[in-house]
Fold this protein.
Amino acid sequence: MGPMAIRGMFDEMHDLATQLVMKWARHGPSHPIMATDDLTRVTLDTLALCSMGFRFNSYYTPEVLPFLKSMGSFLQESGRRIGRLPLPEFCYKSENEAYFADVEKMRTTAQGVLDERKREGPGGRRDLLQTMMDGVDKVTGQKMTDDSILDNLLTFLVAGHETTSGLLSFAFHELLSSPEAYRKAKEEVDRIVGTGTIAVEHMSQLPYLEAVSPPTSAF
């Protein structure tokens, strides 16, 4: 996840961001846009594509995808578990069953991605998933187990997308609430990028936009 590797992910990031903008454009000014929902989709889709070469294609259905639904209920229940009363576990039988069913659904998706990569064999993508599959511990000489790879993929997806989608949601809100800041950000993009296609080289030339939405650990 070094700077050069992330630069190499730009085209895939741009692809998914373009899909989001096209979706909003198709809706037109009279159609309400659930920006926070769409920003969650774009960040999760981006992380999945860049880190493991998997496309959720979450823009193409108005329904919440099974993985996203399981992830959402899993996160909600994780928050509730912290404040549980100290009662015997059988008192939470239904909650526990739903919780671990959500975990299993997410792991099944991740397992499918891992199995597909194994079928492809070596010589393909060089991303986070492939690095974990090929990496060898310098001290023990051991490679990561499949279970460990799945745990890391899910942690990266769940934790990585949420911070970025939250940042983008707040950035959008603040820009729309501050017309002058919005004007300056738009003016900078128009001046640097113009009417052409934005490229990775432009990223270092947008200091005002970077100040509006600083980079996070996700991407």
Observations:
- Residues 146-177 form the longest helix (32 residues).
- The mean pLDDT is 88.
- The radius of gyration is 20 Å.
- The domain at 3-212 is CATH 1.10.630.10 (Cytochrome p450).
